Amino acid sequence: MDKTTTWLVRGAAIVVIIVGWVSYLEPYLKKQELIRLNRNYENQKSKSVERCDQKKRISYSELLDLINSGQVKSIMLSPDTSLVEIKTKNNSFVASIAPDKDLLALFSANNIQMVVGSEGLCK
After folding, report:
1. 51: domain range?
2. Is 94 exposed, middle or buried (0-12, 13-18, 19+ CB in 10 A)?
3. pTM recorded for the entire structure
4. Which of 61, 90, 91, 121 is buried most, with the most CB atoms less than 10 Å from its CB?
5. Are 121 and 48 in contact (CB under 8 A)?
6. What is the pLDDT of residues 53-63, one digit of tens each?
7. Into how many domains does the chain fold?
8. Count of helix runs (H) and strand runs (E) in the chain
């Protein structure tokens, strides 16, 4: 073999090695990214639960009283837990309820802003 052919074979081998390495590394990097995103999500969820533990909890009947008196401005529903943050004109409360369609209809009838999300819960 002459020198040109030798360098062409070496170059081709390097390309094959790099392509194989990248194709092996790509799924690993995607899996690591998913693990990181899941860890961040779980961390945000646990922080929101801790923040909610510091707020005053109210019962379902107290929530209905606040809604009927027109004091509730907005409600944040958590998709993961049964926690609901209630923001009134003066204060912020937490309730452990699972909203059904009748309660959601009551929110709509009283023009209460509803937000679904766990990251901003109890901030």
Report:
1. 1-123
2. buried
3. 0.61
4. 121
5. yes
6. 888 888 888 98
7. 1
8. 3, 4
